[in-house]
Amino acid sequence: MKIYSQGDQAIVVSIEKEVSKDLTEDLLALKKYLADKNYPFITEIVPTESDMMICYDARDMIKHHHIQSPFLYMKALIQSVQLEIKHEEDTMDPIEIPVVYGGMYGPDLESLLKHYKMNFEKFVKRHTQPNYFVSMMGYTPGFPYLTGMDKHLFVNHTGENKSFIPAGSVIIEGKKTGITTTDTYGDWLVIGYTPVKLFTPEFEDFTKLKLGDNVVFKSVSEKEMDLGGFKPCQS
Question: CATH assignment of 2-80?
Answer without folding.
Answer: 3.30.1360.40
